[in-house]
Design goal:
With 163 residues, the protein is of the alpha+beta class. Helices cover 36% and strands 17% of the residues. A 5-stranded mixed β-sheet has the order 2-1-5-3-4. The N and C termini lie far apart (42 Å). 40% of the residues are buried.
């Protein structure tokens, strides 16, 4: 059994102090210590993007991020994307556009999209495709997903929202 190390993590605006094996990934800590299961454990190789979270505002594959490398950086998971009383515009747009079917890839797709829109409020289709390039979906066409990101962009721009 591996020795557990003390950790202080900033997840979804909350500070968590806990112990976990030092060789664990961020994904393992999120799922098995904090019970935040929205980030999916897919390929464990960084190929599918189902485990994507934001670390300091950038999409990050949590299955490839050793917990010691994360330190006290700001982490946002799908559970922390929405406000307590309403969905994030990306979540709302994905629902409106029928962008996802089985839901396995959805958290990674939404986190990648939200990160893009935080950096670029009005991305082109090419920029959307590049931002979502690390996220695989087997159940739906990417057309609806791109449309959802465009819809979220329009929603955020019309309301003057800042991520």
């Amino acid at each position: 059994m591996s020795a557990e190390i003390p950790l202080t993590l900033h997840i979804n605006g909350q500070t968590h102090r806990l112990f976990a094996p030092g060789h664990w990934t961020l994904l393992e800590v999120l799922r098995y210590r904090l019970n935040l299961t929205g980030s999916k454990q897919g390929c464990d190789k960084g190929d599918c993007g189902a485990c994507t979270v934001m670390v300091d505002g950038r999409p990050t594959l949590s299955c490839l991020s050793l917990i010691g490398e994360v330190g006290e950086r700001d982490v946002i998971t799908i559970e922390g994307l929405a406000e307590p009383t309403r969905l994030h515009p990306v979540q709302d747009a994905f629902d409106q556009c029928g962008a996802l079917q089985c839901g396995f890839c959805q958290s990674g797709m939404m986190i990648s999209a939200a990160s893009l829109l935080e950096r670029n409020a009005d991305p082109t289709v090419l920029e959307i495709n590049e931002a979502l390039g690390g996220n695989l979906c087997r159940c739906t066409g990417y057309t609806q997903i791109v449309k959802a990101v465009q819809t979220a962009s329009a929603m955020m721009n019309s309301k003057g929202e800042v991520l």
